[in-house]
Task: structure prediction
Amino acid sequence: MDVPDRWKAVRVHGRFGSDSAAATHAAVASGLGIGLTPLWQIRSLVDEGTVEVVLEDFEDSKIPIYAVWPSGKIPLAKTRLFVNELAARLKRERL
Result:
């Protein structure tokens, strides 16, 4: 994609706004417009072809995700399994 060296601010006005990720995903999947969300949240919609990724050249930089629990406390087995599964899925998303 050829992008000029100059940035231009564009004010966007729409009829739909929400602070609910589920509502925003449903609106985008219904064709109401575009949305900004982490790929892992909408991977199934992308895989199904319901939505497509656009403006990839303008994505935010990646931010780390941490799992934190109190020091000296061993996490429950189910907590550890969840963290391991989440880490594996997020690692696959980066590839």
Observations:
- The chain has two domains: 1-60, 64-95.
